[in-house]
């Protein structure tokens, strides 16, 4: 089972040039069995496009998402995908102490035990495993790199009830795309 993992798309933003979602992300979305989005959509029309094109969408709202998106999406989405328990939330807090905090909520003894937690907010790609065994993934942002060298997203697979083949994809600067 193929996954696209993304967050912080922040679309559309009208600046001197209109920001768009890069074509490789649309292509990964079209190829995915499940699309995971960890919030900061900014526009309900982008959510509409993802819902229309995704075989299955697991998503939450982010801190920049207004009432229309918050009415349609949970703060934290929980799903079982091919035997993998997955949570998606926008914020996981500061990097310092992240594993401990995530274990307290999402680890085996937490309120919501999961195998994988996908989060966004920082635009900084992250891939680690907590002492309790929860895989933490932040795909970065495909549209706003901030202090990172490139805009990013992730893909992964679920095989035999386990997350596998997690891959970070760096996008070329000024990559072509469409909204």
UniProtKB/TrEMBL annotation:
Superkingdom: Bacteria
Record domain Calcineurin-like phosphoesterase: where: 1-160
Gene3D superfamilies: 3.60.21.10
Named cofactor requirement(s): a divalent metal cation
Broad enzyme group: hydrolase
InterPro entries documented for this protein: Calcineurin-like_PHP_lpxH (IPR024654), Metallo-depent_PP-like (IPR029052), Phosphodiesterase_MJ0936/Vps29 (IPR000979)
Pfam families assigned to the protein according to its UniProt record, in alphabetical order: Metallophos_2
Keyword list, A-Z: Metal-binding
Keyword Metal-binding in record: yes
SUPFAM superfamilies cross-referenced by the UniProt entry: Metallo-dependent phosphatases
Transmembrane parts of this sequence: none
EC number(s) recorded for this UniProt protein: 3.1.4.-
PANTHER family: VACUOLAR SORTING PROTEIN VPS29
Family: Belongs to the metallophosphoesterase superfamily. YfcE family.
Name of the protein described by the UniProt record: Phosphoesterase
Organism of provenance: Actinomycetospora chibensis
């Amino acid at each position: 089972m193929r996954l696209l993992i993304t967050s912080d798309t922040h679309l559309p933003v009208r600046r001197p040039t209109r920001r768009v979602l890069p074509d490789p992300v649309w292509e990964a979305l079209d190829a995915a069995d499940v699309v995971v989005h960890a919030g900061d959509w900014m526009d309900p029309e982008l959510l509409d496009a993802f819902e229309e094109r995704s075989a299955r969408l697991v998503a939450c709202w982010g801190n920049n998402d207004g009432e229309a998106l918050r009415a349609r999406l949970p703060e934290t989405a929980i799903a079982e995908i091919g035997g993998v328990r997955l949570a998606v939330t926008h914020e996981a807090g500061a990097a310092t102490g992240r594993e401990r905090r995530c274990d307290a909520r999402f680890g085996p003894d937490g309120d919501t035990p999961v195998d994988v937690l996908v989060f966004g907010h920082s635009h900084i790609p992250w891939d680690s495993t907590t002492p309790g065994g929860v895989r933490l993934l932040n795909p970065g942002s495909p549209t706003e790199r901030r202090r990172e060298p490139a805009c990013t997203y992730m893909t992964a697979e679920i095989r035999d009830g386990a997350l596998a083949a997690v891959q970070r994809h760096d996008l070329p600067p000024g990559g072509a795309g469409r909204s």
